[in-house]
Amino acid sequence: MEKRSKGILGNRVVNKIKFLGHASIYIETSKVSIVTDPWFSKTGAFLHSWFQYPDNTEIDFSWVQALDYVCISHEHQDHCDIEFLKTIPESARIVIPQYHDNYLYNLLKANLPNKVIQVKNREKLVMEDVVYTPIKQSVPGWNDCALLFDTPMGTIGDINDMKLTEEDLIFIDENFDIDYLFIQYSGASWYPSVYSNYDDNEKTKLAKKKTYNKFRNVLNIYERLNPKYIVPCAGPPCFLDEKWFYLNSIKDNSFPDQSIFYNFFIKNYDEFRIIIPIPGDIIDSNSHTVNYINLAHPAFTDKKAYLEQYKGKRKDIINSKLEKLQNFDSSLLTKCHDYFIPLMESSQFLTKKINDRIVLRTEYENIIVDFEHKLTYCMASPTSYAIPPFYTLKLESKYLNMIFDRTLTWEELLLSLRIEMSRTPDKYNEFLIVFLKFANSDYYKYYEKHYHKTQRTDTFELETNGKKYKVQKYCPHALGDLSKGSVVDGNIICPVHSWAFSLKNGNCINHNSKIFIENIQ
Question: 252-306 pLDDT, tens per residue?
Fold first, then answer.
């Protein structure tokens, strides 16, 4: 693809780019109006645990009835607000990436009368005087996508939650000159919050490390793509349920706000290259000049009071929604068997890779899911295990029943934080998480093909501390290019998610994984 220069779409009337909060951007030209990843719900997301920060539910919505397109990157509720989408004109078209599975497409078609357009990876869709290009997540384990827009106002790179591989970065760099880089900088996962085997000090330590690694990865992308401006967005969520409200006030948690990233950024780069918007702000080349005004917003300067007021506005909504969830006080063993056994049988690969037991602990029973023997059964007490299961998931029976009825996904439950987990040994097991997150035989086959691809033999030479090594080039987790990583304390660190592999034996020091490493000098 020939690299486009800025302005190739012509000198048309410049209208606006507006930040609508979280990961939502509004693009309006003289010919078309587009919104991305809408999330405006007052009921929150993920079992009413996540809420937008700052609040974006009372901004100007006068643009909705003239909307031409909605571009959605992926199915997460903080990017795909079904209740909002029910308010858009029936004539508005919804544009999504063409994923391997049809989950997002089916979700939209089941709820909306609008036309849904699926666009293949890296192919262009012309929307009048705006050109849209999706860069689909190439690594199984996530359905996600970066959205690129060539507009009369400049090129927008909407990276949102996307995990960019080296190949993605090369493609974007070669084909786009980005003016405004919208990118997630804040955590968006359940780790380490749901892990009960960590005390508060350990959770703080892990969260602090995770945040630093996330910030560094964002800066790496910024350096590679060299946009005119970076706009940190797509987070953080805030937590307004009383149970999780304390997470907002922890100094070093997994969900830093924009002001924290701003202070980190300006230690390394020109402060005029970063834009900190408030929901409803116009984004243009002058936006950085009002950073000092936006950073004085109560959401950043008086966070505790702002959140207390916000919680008060949502308390009744949260309680009402949770009370409507039906309790389930009968045994779920039969449903568990009917859910897990067909999935195990559909993927011998994942079942053998897991090859262990997990326990599902509800307030009524302890159900063992045995991947080694393809069995499910109940145990009277978790203390009766001769050898403890390697993962323990503690959750209310009503949520487990929703999982088995497929009205709730494991990922939605995990993101809600309404579950506790522990693991023995304390090693992340990607095979189990993939098995739970997708619960789909077709996707399991897709993942298996990807796994074998990660075992490819590409290597590079690494010289450090007077020694030379032949090292597997791509990280098995998300195909991060290890040749662009760093060496710290005898480990090579992946630049994408900071997985650390020992130079002695290739073992990952914090996850259940391994790479090829050979000492050649």
Answer: 888 999 999 999 999 989 999 999 999 999 999 999 999 999 999 999 999 999 9
- Give yes or no for residue 10 having a pLDDT over 60: no
Between 143 and 315, where is the model more confident? 315
What is the percent of the chain where pLDDT is above 70? 95
Q: In the numeric block, which tokens belong to residue 328?
A: 């389930």
Contact 116, 139 (CB under 8 A): no
Q: Judging by beta carbons within 10 Å of its beta carbon (0-12, 13-18, 19+), is residue 286 exposed, middle or buried?
A: exposed
392's tokens: 């323990």
The answer to whether 410 and 399 are in contact (CB under 8 A) is no
Dmax (CA) of the chain = 73
Instruction: Give CA–CA dist 324/335, Å, rounded.
Output: 22
Helix locations, 324-429, DSSP H: 333-346, 348-354, 397-404, 410-416
Once rounded to an integer, what is the mean pLDDT over residues 80-85? 97
Q: Would you call 54 exposed, middle or buried from its count of C-beta atoms within 10 A (0-12, 13-18, 19+)?
A: buried
List of E strands, 225-379: 229-233, 237-239, 357-361, 366-370, 375-379
Which pLDDT score is estimated for 1?
Answer: 34
DSSP state at residue 232: E
Q: Which two tokens stand for residue 53?
A: 């920060």
Burial 453-485 (b: 16+ CB within 10 A, else e): ebeeeebeebeeeeeebebbbbbbbbbbbbbeb
How many Cα atoms sit within 13 Å of 75 on the Cβ side?
A: 19
CB 226 within 8 A of CB 273: no
Banded model confidence at residue 3, pLDDT cuts 50, 70, 90: very low
Three-state DSSP class for residue 362:
coil
Hunting for tokens 């357009």 — which residue is that? Answer: 117
